[in-house]
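FAQ

Q: What does a record look like?
A: Structure on top, sequence underneath. For example:
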C-alpha cells in the first residue's frame, strides 16, 4: 500500500484564551501515515485534538510546525489558489450536516461544482449521478428541512463527493443520528470507500462506528497519538490506558476489582477465561465441549463481539469438579482458544 496522507511531526498551537494564559497545544508532534484506500478512525477524549488534526489535513487550519503531504503534494506549504485547488480534492462531512438551508438538495450538491467552475449541463448530470449513488433520486427539489437527519447526511456525502475527491473526512458524521440511520450511513460510507476507492478518515466518539468500518485506528490523548494499529488489534489487545477505556465500552473486557470480587462471592468453583480470535471457534463449541466432558460450569462474564466482521470471544466461566476432570474438559475445547485461570 502507498501512503495517501502523511503527517510529519505536526503540531498545532492556539493562542491562550486569556491574556497571560497558556498557549493551547491542540496537536502535539504527531506523525502518522494513512494509506491509500483505507478507512482510518481517530478516537480520544473530548479535547484530545481529533477535530483539529482532521482540519489540518485539509488545511482549514494551518499547521504551526511540521508538514502534511497528501498524495505527492505538501499541502501544508500551499497558499491561495493552489491550496484551494487541493482542498477541492478533499471532501468533508459534519455532525450537523452543514447544508445550505436556502438551497434545494440539488443546489447543495451542485454548490462545490459551481465554485470550481463546472458548466451547467455537466453539473446537472453529476448531481443526478450523485443523488442516485446516495439513494436520494427523486428528492432533488426538496429543501434540507424537509428531509430526515439520515437523508440530510446523504446530501452532505453527495456534496462532499461532488468534485471527485480522493479523500473524505468525517467529523462525528453519524453522532446526531439514531442507530438504524447510523448503520445506513455507514453502509453508504463503506460503498464510497470500496466502489470509489476514496480514503476515509473518521473521527467519532461512537466505538461501534470504528469497529464497523475502520480498518485502522489511532488513539489520541492530549494532542498526541498514543496508539495506532489495526482496529481488530487495538480493540482486542489495547496497549494504553486510554485505548483500554474506549475499547471497554464496546468490547467485553475481563472482570476485575469489585466486579471480580462480586462474581466470586456469587459463584462457586475456579474461574477460567477462555479467549478466541479464531474464526473456527464459537461460544457454542466451547460450551458443548465442556458439557461433553461432564464438568459443572457456568458463564459468569463476557461474550462474543464482532470487530470488523471478525469474532472476538472473551468468556469467563466458573468450573466445579475434580482437578483432573476440569483439566480434561478445558483440553477438550480444542485448538484456537487460549485458556487462563483467574486466580
Ligand atoms: N480555533 C481554536 N481556537 C482556540 N482553541 C482551539 C480551537 N480549536 C480547538 N481548540 C482547542 O484545542 C483543543 C483540541 O480541540 P479539538 O476540538 O481538536 O478536540 P477534539 O478531540 O476534537 O474534541 P471534541 O471531541 O470535543 O470535538 C481543545 O483544548 C480546544 O479547546
Amino acid at each position: 500500500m502507498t501512503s495517501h496522507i502523511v503527517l510529519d511531526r505536526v503540531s498545532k498551537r492556539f493562542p491562550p484564551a486569556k491574556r497571560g494564559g497558556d498557549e493551547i497545544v491542540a496537536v502535539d508532534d504527531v506523525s502518522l501515515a494513512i494509506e491509500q484506500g483505507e478507512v482510518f478512525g481517530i478516537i480520544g477524549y473530548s479535547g484530545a485534538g481529533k477535530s483539529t488534526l482532521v482540519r489540518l489535513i485539509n488545511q482549514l487550519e494551518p499547521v504551526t510546525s511540521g508538514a502534511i503531504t497528501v498524495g505527492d503534494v505538501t499541502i501544508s506549504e500551499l497558499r491561495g489558489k493552489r491550496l484551494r485547488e487541493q482542498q477541492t480534492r478533499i471532501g468533508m462531512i459534519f455532525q450537523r450536516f452543514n447544508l445550505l438551508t436556502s438551497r434545494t438538495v440539488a443546489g447543495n450538491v451542485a454548490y462545490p461544482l459551481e465554485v470550481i467552475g463546472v458548466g451547467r449541463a455537466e453539473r446537472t448530470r453529476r448531481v443526478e449521478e450523485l443523488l442516485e449513488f446516495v439513494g436520494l433520486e427523486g428528492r432533488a427539489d426538496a429543501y434540507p428541512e424537509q428531509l430526515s437527519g439520515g437523508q440530510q447526511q446523504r446530501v452532505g456525502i453527495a456534496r462532499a463527493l461532488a468534485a471527485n475527491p480522493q479523500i473524505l473526512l468525517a467529523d462525528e458524521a453519524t453522532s446526531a443520528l439514531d442507530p438504524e440511520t447510523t448503520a445506513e450511513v455507514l453502509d453508504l460510507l463503506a460503498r464510497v470507500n470500496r466502489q470509489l476507492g476514496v480514503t476515509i478518515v473518521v473521527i467519532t466518539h461512537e466505538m461501534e462506528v470504528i469497529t464497523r468500518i475502520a480498518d485502522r485506528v489511532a488513539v489520541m490523548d492530549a494532542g498526541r497519538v498514543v496508539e495506532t494499529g489495526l482496529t481488530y488489534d487495538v480493540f482486542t489487545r489495547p496497549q494504553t490506558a486510554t485505548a483500554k477505556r474506549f475499547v471497554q465500552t464496546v468490547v467485553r473486557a475481563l472482570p476485575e476489582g469489585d466486579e471480580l470480587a462480586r462474581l466470586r462471592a456469587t459463584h462457586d468453583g475456579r474461574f477460567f477465561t477462555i479467549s478466541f480470535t479464531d474464526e473456527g471457534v464459537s461460544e457454542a463449541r466451547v460450551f458443548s465441549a465442556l458439557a461433553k466432558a461432564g464438568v459443572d460450569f457456568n458463564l459468569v462474564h463476557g461474550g462474543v463481539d464482532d470487530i470488523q466482521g471478525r469474532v472476538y470471544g472473551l468468556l469467563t466461566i466458573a468450573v466445579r469438579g475434580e482437578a483432573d476432570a476440569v483439566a480434561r474438559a478445558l483440553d477438550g475445547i480444542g485448538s484456537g482458544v487460549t485458556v487462563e485461570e483467574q486466580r
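Q: Is there anything notable about this one?
A: The chain has two domains: 3-247, 257-342.
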